[in-house]
Design goal:
alpha+beta, globular, flagellum, cell projection
Amino acid sequence: MDAASLPAALDLVASGGAGLSPEKRAALGASLPLLQRDYRFERVWFWGRIQGLRGAYYIAEGLGPDRAAPRSRLYSLNCVEWSLLPPASEDTVAQAEKLKGRFQGDPSFEYELTEIKAEDAEKLIEDGQQPVIKEEARLVATIEQIDKAVGIIPRGSFVKTPLGSVHENRNFEGLSLTEAKKLSSYFHLTEPVNLKNKTLLEKADLDPSTDFLDSLEHDIPKGSWTVQLEKGGIVVVLRSLLWLGLTFYHVPMTKQYGYVYFGTGEKNLDLPFML
């Protein structure tokens, strides 16, 4: 969610039990604008919090002019001092997926890669490295996984230019209440997969400037999202059952929307058996 509207946005998603203490809100309100200035980001989003056993990671994302470009990610242990995370490589994400259990809350904590292939382990040892992964690497890989799986935006809020860059739509005035209650009105803010498999006939009714992402209606497993009306029916809230703790909100007929994650960073692998 946008750092500029953080206090009001947190109040809109507080019904799920997630939130921040007044001290943390005040610290974020002071540090995020400085973060935007120091790193020269065009926009800063507060991504959320991953709770560990001995501490918590507070995550922020910095955006440039092209919203489809990879986002810079930073973490803080106290909402005041921020550290830039390295980009998540495919190998790091694959290794992190094999790790089980809670985060520790210590960026330097090392996990042993017990399920790594023998030849991969030998190669690491030959290069002078141990078959381990630091929690900092697991952190950025988990954020990448969550963003790809459940990072969403309303339809029409972003537009794609003929040159391929993606920008916020200044003409977006919010979804109607009827449209806001449909999963098809929300898109994954990541590289589309299902869209590429559609036939030309299916793409005929799509607007290439706004319908360039995958919608939530075809997410697998079916039923992995809940849609609810809250605050007396003036706020539409979507919650992910796959990544418990991810909450998206949108106030129909306004530009107010965003998502935040408050959880343990663990995927709900039991979801297919719960539906």
